[in-house]
Amino acid sequence: MSVMMTSIASEMREKESWIVVELNPARDLLQSLAAKLYGLAELHPYFIQAKLDFAAFGIGVSLENAIELMLAEIQKRHMKLLITIDGVTNCEYVRIFSGSYQIFLRQGYLIFLLMTGLYENIYDLQNEKSLTFLYEEYVYSKIWSGLSGMDRKILAAMAVSRETKVKNIRANMGMKSELFSVYRERLKRKGILDTSQEWWEADDDVTLITRPRRFGKNLNMSMLEKFFSVEYAGRGELFEGLFIWEEKHPGGENKYRKLQGTWPVISISFAKVKETTYINTKKKICQIITNLFNHYDFLLDGDMLNPLAAKPANA
Questions:
Q1: Is residue 85 within 8 Å of residue 79, measured between CB atoms?
Q2: CATH number of the domain at 146-193, please?
C-alpha cells in the first residue's frame, strides 16, 4: 500500500493543478500541514500577497483557521490539494487532524486525503466516533448488501452504460414502465438514485435531502451553491465534463448552462457547532448568522431590498 501511495503521489505531483503534501503521523499533523503549505515555493507569493503571515498564526488564530485561509487561496487558483499519510495509528494527532479534515470538506475545499496503515490500526481508527469518514467503504458495502437482486442489476446497468434517461435504461433492460417505476422510486427513497435535475424541474419551495450517512449530502449542498450562486458566475469550468453541463436538449442547447451563476444563494452551515451546552450552542449559532449578515451587509446600501427587508431587526 505504501508503494502504491507513493506512486499515486508522484503521478499527481506531475499535474500543474495539484499540490501534494506528505505528513508524518507521529507529529502534529495540523501544524505540519500549515507549515508545509506556507513553505511551498509555488504558493508562498500568493500567501504573501493575501497578507497571510505564518508567524502570526497562533496569536488569536488557530491552526485550523490558518489552514482554511491558505486553502481558500489555493482554491482561488483552481488548484487541488492531496495529503498523504503513511503508517497511520489511532493517536491524538490523527484524531484531531481527522476532525479538522472533515470540516475542510464541509466547507467545500478541494482537499483529498490518502492514508495507509496496518489493518489492525485502521480497524482501531474506525471504532473512533469522531472518524466517521473512515466508514465510507463499510457504509457503501452495507447499503449494497441491503439491495435486492433487481436493484443491483438496474444500478449496474446504469453504471456500465452511463445512461441517465429513464426511457433508454428501461429499453436496455427490457423492463416495462410500471415495473421500472417501482424500483426507481425505491432507489430514489434510499438516496442511491440521484434525481437532482428532476428536483429543479419540480419547482418546489422547500426541499429536504435525506441520504444515508456519509453519502455526500454536504458535498452536494456545496456543489449546488457553486452552480447557482452569483458569486461563482462565469465559473462554468467547474462543471465541464459533467452531465448537467454537457447534456443537450431539443434545439441543441443546454438549458442548465444558462442557470450557472445567476441566482442569489445564501449558504449556511452548522457543522462547526459542537458546543455541549444550550447557551454556548445558541451563541455559536448567533455568531454564524451574524457573520453571514455581515457578509451581505452591502445590500443595505443599495436599492435591491424593499424598505421592510432593509429595515434593521432592532429598529
A1: no
A2: 1.10.10
How far apart are alpha carbons 307 and 315 in whole angstroms? 12
Query: Position of cell 446497468?
Result: 157
Residue 239: name the closest of 252, 249, 250, 224 by CA: 224
Strand partners, 82: 20, 112
CATH class of 2-141: alpha beta
Alpha-carbon distance 88 to 128, whole Å?
14
Closest CA relative to residue 275, chosen from 264, 263, 284: 284
* Grid cell digits, residue 112: 483529498
Please compute Rg for the chain using Cα positions: 23
- Single-letter amino acid, residue 94: V
Question: pLDDT tens, 67-116?
Answer: 888 898 888 888 899 999 998 888 888 888 888 888 888 788 888 988 88
Half-sphere exposure of 250 (CA within 13 A, CB side): 0
Q: Which of 125, 141, 145, 142 is nearest to 133 (CA)?
A: 125
Find, among 188, 182, 149, 155, the residue nearest to 169 by Cα.
Answer: 155
Q: Which three cell numbers stand for residue 24?
A: 508524518
At position 105, the amino acid (one-letter code) is L
Instruction: Assign 111 to helix, strand or coil.
Output: strand
pTM: 0.47
For residue 98, give the nearest of 88, 109, 107 by alpha carbon.
88
Residue pLDDT, tens place only, 131-159 = 655 555 555 566 777 788 888 888 888 77
The CA distance from 193 to 147, in Å, is 12
Q: What are the strands of the beta sheet with 111-116, ordered from one edge?
A: 18-23, 80-86, 111-116
Spatial distance between the Cα atoms of 75 and 98, rounded to a whole number of angstroms = 20
Side chain identity, residue 305? L
Identity (one letter) of the amino acid at 53?
A: D
DSSP for residue 229: B
Task: Give the type of residue at 146.
Answer: G
